[in-house]
Design brief:
By secondary structure, this protein is an alpha/beta fold. 40% of the residues lie in helices and 19% in strands. The protein has an eight-stranded mixed sheet with strand order 3-4-2-1-7-8-9-10, with helices on both faces. Strands 13-12-11-14-15-16 form a six-stranded parallel sheet, with helices on both faces. The protein has a two-stranded antiparallel ribbon with strand order 5-6. Helix 4 packs antiparallel against helix 6, helix 8 packs across helix 12 and helix 11 crosses helix 13. 41% of the residues are buried.
Length: 388
């Protein structure tokens, strides 16, 4: 089979999240291998177009009517004004397949033009929208009794999942970042689903960037990501309290990111540094200067930041829910534990620095086996299920 011409319309590209990170690496993969690839995305450079051989990008600006979903995430109800521009570019590029990443403005356009132009559609699942919708309903559910609140959140989650899987059933082939989600999608949509995991730049995220003195005994507990309710970051406050109660005092949190819960964390945590969002070399140094990565999210479909931490030689403590449990090797590159066990797992390593050192080496070793080329090679292999 010849290499297909792919038009890629991601939900997110420039932002700081897993979809954007994957999308930037997907474009880089196409450029690295000289593949015919069109990336249509939203951004600040209104109607900016770039072309190099068969690699093309079209960036479309959002309007002032955009609704903020998070500090750097928006949905533009007036994005339909770009429909003729998108149609014209798709007709000019002549894709064999359109690939979308979710029910955003661009995802909806991608699904519509795939239908209009008779082009097979591929869709990758990157975000558990149904779980996010339920978690973000806490402003309302907290007003009710616990049973009523749980019933309300469950209803929202089930309804959101039904609607989202109906949208994904428009595609001929699906992708998801872990086996659990792949099985769920395949069953709900009756479409083939392939793994679309994530890779890591092991040169950018490396223990070599560590700048702390060799004799520094402080245990630095790291977190990188959105500071939002669906990431369960409130658990960090509880962990601090429990560690102090266990007699562990020589530790400090390094929390990188921003979000709605930032102010609450700053007010509640006594032993924490919150430098905000970091990028490039600053982010690489932050990871490398951590000793243990603490990631309490139950909703992440993969966990890019967990893999970046492992690549930096930092073992991770994660929950048994979502994608991170497929990255961490329990007892080897970190721990997979319920919320109530986070503090005890951290305390065990705080008291056994030799074991922590062994875990740091194992984490780096595992990350070296991951690459973006392998990830996207599998994506292109999966396109066979959609192409005639």
């Amino acid at each position: 089979m010849r290499v297909p011409r792919v038009a890629y319309l991601p939900d997110s590209f420039h932002e700081i999240n897993g979809v954007a990170h994957t999308s930037r690496n997907f474009l880089a993969y196409a450029e690295r291998h000289g593949l015919p690839f069109l990336c249509i995305r939203a951004g600040s450079r209104a109607n900016a177009f770039e072309q190099a051989e068969e690699l093309r990008t079209l960036e479309l600006g959002r309007s002032r009517a955009s609704v903020g979903l998070e500090k750097d995430l928006h949905f533009d109800p007036l994005f339909f004004r770009h429909s003729n521009t998108i149609r014209r570019e798709l007709l000019r590029f002549r894709p064999d397949l359109i690939h979308i990443t979710g029910p955003s403005e661009l995802g909806i356009f991608g699904a519509y033009f795939a239908w209009e132009q008779g082009i097979p559609l591929a869709a990758s699942w990157h975000t558990n929208v149904h779980e996010y919708a339920a978690r973000r309903l806490d402003w309302l559910s907290r007003r009710f009794s616990s049973p009523t609140a749980a019933q309300l959140e469950h209803g929202v989650e089930v309804g959101s999942l039904w609607a989202t899987t109906r949208f994904y059933s428009l595609a001929k082939v699906l992708y998801a970042p872990n086996e659990e989600l792949c099985e769920m999608l395949a069953k709900a949509t009756e479409r083939p689903c392939h793994l679309m995991q994530r890779g890591v730049d092991t040169a950018q995220f490396s223990p070599e960037h560590r700048t702390r003195p060799a004799g520094d005994s402080m245990l630095v507990l790291g977190y990188v990501g959105r500071l939002s309710v669906e990431k369960n970051v409130a658990l960090l406050v509880k962990i601090e309290s429990e560690l102090l109660a266990l007699g562990i005092t020589d530790f400090r949190f390094l929390i990188v990111g921003h979000g709605a819960e930032e102010a609450a964390l700053r007010a509640s945590l006594k032993q924490a540094d919150l430098p905000g969002v970091l990028r490039g070399a600053d982010l690489a140094r932050a990871y490398a200067n951590m000793d243990l990565f603490v990631f309490p999210s139950h909703t992440d479909t993969f966990g890019n930041v967990v893999l970046e931490a492992l690549s930096s030689g930092v073992p991770a403590v994660v929950t048994p829910d979502g994608g991170p449990k497929y990255i961490v090797r329990d007892q080897q590159t970190g721990f997979i534990v319920p919320d109530a066990e986070f503090a005890r797992a951290i305390a065990a390593l705080a008291k056994d620095r030799a074991r922590l050192s062994a875990m740091r080496e194992a984490a780096r070793s595992y990350a070296l086996s991951c690459s973006w080329d392998a990830v996207f090679d599998r994506v292109y292999a999966g396109y066979r299920d959609a192409l005639p």
